[in-house]
Amino acid sequence: MLTNKFLKLQSCLFRLLGFELLAKSCSCSWQQPHRTFASLLAVLSFLPLTVCFGLRHIQNLNNLTDALCSLLIDVLAVFKLGLLICRHKDIMQLLHSLQQLLHEECRQGAAAAIIAQQNKREQFISGLYKNIFIVSAASACLMPLLRMLYIFYRYGQVEPALPFPSVYPWHNRHLLNYSVSYAWNVCAAAAVLLPTVCVDTLYCALTHNLCALFQIAQHKFKHATVADYNAQRGVGQLDLLTLYQRTLDLTGTLNACFRLLVTVQFLIASLHLCVLSYQMATNLLQPDVLFFFAFTCSILAQVYLYCYCGECVKDESMRITAAIYECSWLEMTCQLPGLSQTLQLSMLRAQRASCIRGYFLEANRITFVKVSATDRRTDRQTEGPSHILTHFCLQIVKTAMSYVTLLRSMS
């Protein structure tokens, strides 16, 4: 039986968006389209308000970057919703194929333990990721109210403030108008939050389960014996080669489904970090810096999630080579001479890593972390997530300071 941690968080989130991830058929996975289109409408209806705000304050770089920051996160959410709508059948087919393969493998104790461990770690990462975005959205929605209370307490005046930069055809000093505007902002924030967390945590779950399959293949290679071979083809074939090939096929399907998203995600994240760095620099002594800091953490978490998961898939696929070498190949090739060529070809294939690629980049740490030549020669097995994240954050800070200098010179 598959672990109860499998897509536990994602199932709840996608159900709110109108999808049933664990449906028996791909054709009935999109059960409530009205929820999906309601989220899409909430974001699309808010986009013109943000664009108008940016055009109205085009001479004010602070307000313009604020509007650009909000616009980018809305565009990315619309793109992820569009991806789900257009490719939900392909994604669900990939999910069902992965689930079927995991069901077949989890009958063995070692494989079941590997799957349970990977899903437990994935649920922890996805839950932490979800909480980061919830904190960012909550801080964005509560900050205007706290600012209004502070101004009222300090000066005795009510100055209406909204979570996100936007322009409305009515005056927000009236309580009813302000309530409508504030509710519109909150609905837009929820509509952005839900698809973003859904798609990103689904990507995290798929990659972690692919890593589990690669680890199961490694375990089977290390403990393979002559009895594990199928001699029906004459030269002897490992039954577990089928598992390895199916895992490679699933990785290719995942790459095809998320290739465009990986590219768009990284491009928009780069622009986000640019404008957020400027906003944090110009509002360093203001209460708004708390919101910009939380927002920056969410963007960093978003980029790092894609980076880390892609690196995990790459590393686990390449460890197949060492697993084949550690098996009792000498004894087996003596009894089955035709097996030698099969193992050599498998090792050659495993040396070509399975990567999650965009159109002109690869989702791994090297894409973002430009370390010295000494760091690049370091063995990947000695580098943990904290080592990768440290180099990544240092590079982000270095790049952000360059952006801040450029923007401040323009202002």
Describe this structure in words.
By secondary structure, the chain is mainly alpha-helical. The protein has one domain (about 10-410). The protein contains 12 helices and 2 strands. It has a two-stranded antiparallel sheet with strand order 1-2. Strand 1 (about 230) and strand 2 (about 235-240) form a beta hairpin. The chain is elongated, with a radius of gyration of 25 Å. The N and C termini lie far apart (about 60 Å). Mean pLDDT is about 80; it is low at about 230-235 and about 370-395. This is Odorant receptor. Its main location: membrane.
Number of strands: 2
State the separation between the terminal residues, measured CA to CA: 61 Å
- The ordered string of helix (H) and strand (E) elements is HHHHHEEHHHHHHH
Enumerate how many helices there are, as a single number: 12
Class from secondary-structure proportions: mainly alpha
Largest sheet: 2 strands, antiparallel
Total domain units: 1
Rg (C-alpha, Å)? 25 Å
List the main descriptive attributes of the protein structure presented here:
411 residues; mainly alpha; two-stranded antiparallel sheet; 12 helices; 1% strand; olfaction; cell membrane; receptor; odorant binding
Task: Describe, in short, the structure shown.
The chain has 411 residues and is an all-alpha fold.
Layout of strands and helices, then pairs:
Elements: H1 8-17, H2 33-56, H3 61-105, H4 109-155, H5 175-222, E1 229-230, E2 237-238, H6 240-282, H7 288-326, H8 329-335, H9 339-350, H10 365-368, H11 373-376, H12 385-410
